[in-house]
Write a structure and sequence with these properties.
Number of helices: 15
CATH topology: TIM Barrel
Protein name: 2,4-dienoyl-CoA reductase-like NADH-dependent reductase (Old Yellow Enzyme family)
Number of domains: 1
Distance between the termini: 55 Å
Order of helices and strands: EEEHEEHEHEHHHEHEHHHEHEHHHH
Structural class: alpha/beta
CATH superfamily: Aldolase class I
GO molecular function: FMN binding; oxidoreductase activity
InterPro entries: Aldolase_TIM, NADH_flavin_oxidoreductase, OxRdtase_FMN_N
Keywords: Flavoprotein, Oxidoreductase
Radius of gyration: 20 Å
Strand content: 5-15%
Number of strands: 11
C-alpha cells in the first residue's frame, strides 16, 4: 500500500509525478537542495563519505540532488572542508559519485560556485566587484581587475566541462546567498563604473557571461539550472530589489537556463535570511525531540520564499524550484498541483532522513523528523554533514564540542569576522 496519489490513468500525481528539467527526466518532484557536505580534504578532494551520502539519497528516493557548492577556482573557496571542481584531478572522484547515484535511478547536478569576499579561508586572496566590506563577515578585499573577472568566467566554464566528464546530469549555478554572483548583482557591493557595473544591466553582466560559458560546455542532454537571489535581505537600504532581480532572471533564463531555484541575494546572516529554524515543528514534535523551549510556541510557517517564487513565475518562462522551509507532504502536493512550483528542494530534512522520499511514498509518514534546529549548520566546516539529534548521543557530542570551545570563532553558526580572517 502506498500513499502515492494516482490519476485516473494510474500515473503518479503531485509530488510523485515524473517531470523534466530541460533534457533531464526526473522521477519525482523532490530535489535535495545544495547542502555543504564538509567532506573534502585540504585539496578540495572528496572521499568515500561523500559518495555514501549521495548514494543514500538516491537509494532513498530523491529524484534529483544538487551537490553542495563546489568551488571553481582556489580564490573562490568558501571553506577548508569544501569540495572543489577546480581541477581535472577531481573528475574521477566525482565520476564514482554520479555512477552510484545513477545505479539507484537518481539524477545529480554539480552545484558550482565562487565565494567572492564571503570566503572563510584565512590565507586565501578572495576577490569582489568592489572594495566593500562583506555584509556578513566584514571582510574587505580589493576590487577585481578585468582580467581577474575574465578568469572567473573561464573557471566556471571549465568546472562545467569537468562536471560533464564526471557524469553529472547537469550543472546548478550558485547565484545567491551572498557569494560572488550576488555581490556583482547588488548595488550595495558593486560600485564599479566599467562594463561590469554602474547600471543593473551591467551588474547582471557577470552571471550572464557565466551562464553562457557554462552552456557552451554542456552537450544537448545536460541541463543548466541556477540558484538565484531575488532580493538583498540586509538592513542597509538601496540593495537589489525584487523587481530588478526578476528582470535579471528573465535575461538569465533567455541565455539558457532550464530552471531557477529562488532564494535570497545578499544576507546579513544565514539563519534569518535563508535557513530559518523550527519550520512546521508542532508541540508534539518539540516534546519528542527534547525541544523544551519550543513547547509553548506555534510552528514556524513553511515555504518562506514562496512569494519570491510567485514573482518569478509571473514574469519568467522557466521551471520553478521552490526552496526554503518546505516540509509537509501535503504542502508539496499543493504547490505542485497548483502550479506554483515545478519542484521543491529541501536540505535539512534529508540530512536526518536520506530515505524521506521513500517514507513519504510508502505512507509511513507525511512530515519529516527534522526540526530545523540548525545544529548541523553550526558544525559546517567543523565536521562532516550529519544530524546531531540522532542518535541521542550526538547531542552530548555537540554539547561537549560547543562548550569545550571547539567552535572557536564560529560558535552557534556565527561566521568569522574580518579581523579573525
Amino acid at each position: 500500500m502506498t500513499s502515492t496519489a494516482l490519476n485516473l490513468g494510474g500515473r503518479p500525481t503531485g509530488a510523485f509525478a515524473p517531470a523534466s528539467l530541460g533534457p533531464v527526466s526526473v522521477r519525482n518532484r523532490f530535489i535535495r537542495a545544495g547542502t555543504g557536505e564538509s567532506m573534502a580534504d585540504r585539496r578540495g578532494r572528496i572521499g568515500p563519505d561523500y559518495l555514501r551520502l549521495h548514494e543514500d539519497l538516491a537509494r532513498g528516493g530523491v529524484g534529483l540532488a544538487f551537490t553542495g557548492h563546489l568551488f571553481v577556482h582556489p580564490r573562490g573557496r568558501y571553506g577548508e572542508l569544501q569540495a572543489g571542481l577546480h581541477t581535472d584531478d577531481a573528475i574521477d572522484d566525482f565520476r564514482a559519485v554520479t555512477d552510484a547515484v545513477h545505479r539507484h535511478g537518481g539524477r545529480i547536478f554539480a552545484q558550482i560556485a565562487h565565494a567572492g569576499s564571503q570566503s572563510m579561508v584565512r590565507d586565501n586572496e578572495p576577490l569582489a566587484p568592489s572594495a566593500v566590506d562583506n555584509v556578513m563577515t566584514g571582510r574587505r578585499v580589493r576590487a577585481a581587475r578585468t582580467d581577474e573577472i575574465d578568469e572567473v568566467v573561464a573557471a566556471f566554464g571549465q568546472a562545467a566541462r569537468r562536471a560533464v566528464e564526471a557524469g553529472f546530469d547537469g550543472v546548478h549555478l550558485h547565484g545567491a546567498n551572498g557569494y560572488l554572483i550576488s555581490q556583482f548583482r547588488s548595488p550595495l557591493t558593486n560600485a564599479r563604473d566599467d562594463e561590469w557595473g554602474g547600471t543593473q544591466e551591467e551588474r547582471d553582466r557577470l552571471p550572464l557571461a557565466v551562464i553562457r560559458a557554462i552552456r557552451a560546455q554542456l552537450p544537448a542532454d545536460r541541463a543548466l539550472t541556477m540558484k538565484v537571489g531575488v532580493a538583498d535581505l540586509v538592513d542597509e537600504e538601496g540593495g537589489l530589489s525584487v523587481d530588478a532581480a526578476v528582470a535579471g532572471v528573465q535575461s538569465f533564463a533567455a541565455a539558457g537556463l532550464d530552471g531557477v531555484e529562488v532564494s535570497s541575494n545578499l544576507m546579513s546572516d544565514y539563519v534569518s535570511a535563508s535557513i530559518r529554524p523550527y519550520i512546521a515543528v508542532s508541540r508534539v514534535r518539540a516534546f519528542t525531540d527534547l525541544l523544551l523551549h519550543r513547547l509553548h510556541r506555534s510552528a514556524e510557517p513553511e515555504a518562506y520564499f514562496l512569494d519570491f517564487a510567485d514573482r518569478v513565475r509571473a514574469r519568467v518562462d522557466t521551471k520553478i524550484i521552490l526552496v526554503g522551509g518546505v516540509r509537509r507532504l501535503g504542502t508539496v502536493n499543493r504547490l505542485i498541483d497548483s502550479g506554483r512550483a515545478d519542484f521543491v528542494s529541501m536540505a535539512r530534512p534529508f540530512i536526518r532522513e536520506p530515505d524521506l522520499v521513500n517514507r513519504f511514498a510508502s505512507g509511513r509518514q507525511t512530515t519529516p523528523a527534522c526540526v530545523s534546529c540548525n545544529i548541523c549548520l553550526m558544525h559546517d566546516e567543523h565536521h562532516p554533514l550529519t544530524c546531531w539529534r540522532v542518535p541521542r548521543v550526538n547531542l552530548l557530542r555537540h554539547a561537549r564540542y560547543r562548550f569545550g570551545g571547539g567552535f572557536g570563532s564560529k560558535g552557534s553558526g556565527r561566521k568569522p569576522s574580518a579581523a579573525e580572517l
